[in-house]
Every structure is written in structure tokens, then in C-alpha cells.
Specification:
Blueprint lengths: L3 E3 L14 E7 L4 H10 L3 E3 L2 E7 L4 E7 L4 E6 L4 H5 L4 E4 L1 E2 L2 E2 L4 H12 L6 E3 L7 E5 L8 E4 L7 E6 L4 E6 L5 E3 L3
Parallel strand pairs: 1-13
Antiparallel strand pairs: 2-6, 2-7, 3-6, 4-5, 8-9, 10-14, 11-12, 11-15, 13-14
């Protein structure tokens, strides 16, 4: 298995005007869908990665939609909307890097959206922390063009993608031939 970490930009919310950037907010426990609904009602562009999973109860099985990354919701906002997001119920705070709201590049959000549209693999989330390694690029498949940090190989088809500001990792199956090392 190969492990890929998603890179992010060290930018801040201090940009002026209506320039929008993706940020991540912490939500109260199990309130991700509520935050998404509240922000959508306020006309704030947001993204909540959802994955369908089959859950087993004593008397039945049921397909449920669960957040891919518990406790987080992505928002695409301008400086003017920054405080409006924090005023929403169940939003705890922004994910911060060096004291400022971390910015997630558009390409990373698009890669997440594209990954969730695929039905031929399962995505699993872990909060395990990984050591940095070689920079690689996905050269084929649904996440083509994504560059990241190769942390570890655990077979031929498993990679872990870490979104650094979130301290969460996504495990996804991708054939090894879909990766290429980038000279550093």
C-alpha cells in the first residue's frame, strides 16, 4: 500500500473583498449535517463529504449517509462571510494553522468530490499521524493530477491521503501503477 498526503497552501483569510477560499470548520459532535443545512440556508457555499454505509442493527440492516470526516465541514467563503460562519449554531471554530484559518486549495476539494463519485472503491478515515516521505503524483484514475506525500506502502493498491490541516487521513484503494514519483 502506498500512502499519499494531500498538500495545502499556507494562506490566510486576510484576503480582501469577495475573493473566496475553502476553509474547514469544526462542528459539534454529530452536527455536521445540521451545520451544512444552516450554512446552505444562509447562502454560504459549503461541502460536506458524505458516504453511504450499510449499518447493522439487531433486527435489520440499513443504508445510512454518514459524514466522511467526522466533526468537519468545508466552507467556500470571502472575508465578509468569515464571521457569519462562526455565528452559525453548532460551528465550534475554524481549523487553524499557525494561528490563522487554514486554506484548502480548490483542487483538493475537487479531488474529494471526484473521489466520492466513484463507486468502485471504499474510502475509510483514520486519525493516525504519519511521518513525511517522498512527493508523488497520481497519474491515472479518478484522482489524476493530485500530488501528495508518500508515507508508506502496504501492498499494491492501498494509499492513505492526509489532509494536513484536518489531522485526518483518508484510506483509498488505487492501483500502484497510478502513482509516479516526482523528482525532488
Amino acid at each position: 500500500m502506498r500512502i499519499v498526503a494531500i498538500q495545502y497552501k499556507k494562506m490566510t483569510i486576510e484576503n480582501k473583498g469577495n475573493f473566496k477560499q475553502w476553509h474547514v470548520v469544526y462542528t459539534r459532535s454529530r452536527a455536521e449535517k445540521t451545520v451544512f443545512a444552516d450554512l446552505t440556508r444562509k447562502n454560504i457555499e459549503c461541502f460536506l463529504p458524505i458516504q453511504k454505509k450499510l449499518r447493522q442493527w439487531k433486527d435489520r440492516k440499513k443504508w445510512v449517509e454518514l459524514p466522511l470526516i467526522s466533526g468537519y465541514c468545508f466552507v467556500n467563503i470571502s472575508r465578509k462571510e468569515y464571521d457569519l460562519v462562526l455565528q452559525s449554531g453548532n460551528v465550534v471554530s475554524y481549523v487553524r494553522f499557525e494561528g490563522k484559518a487554514a486554506v484548502i486549495p480548490d483542487s483538493q476539494i475537487e479531488a474529494l468530490k471526484l473521489m466520492l463519485k466513484q463507486n468502485d472503491f471504499e474510502v475509510k478515515v483514520t486519525t493516525e499521524h504519519f511521518e513525511p516521505g517522498k512527493i508523488v503524483e497520481v497519474i491515472a484514475g479518478p484522482m489524476m493530477g493530485l500530488q501528495g506525500e508518500l508515507v508508506e506502502a502496504r501492498g499494491k493498491n492501498k494509499f492513505i491521503i492526509r489532509i494536513l490541516p484536518l489531522q485526518s487521513a483518508l484510506t483509498v484503494e488505487i492501483p500502484a501503477e497510478h502513482l509516479s514519483g516526482i523528482p525532488g
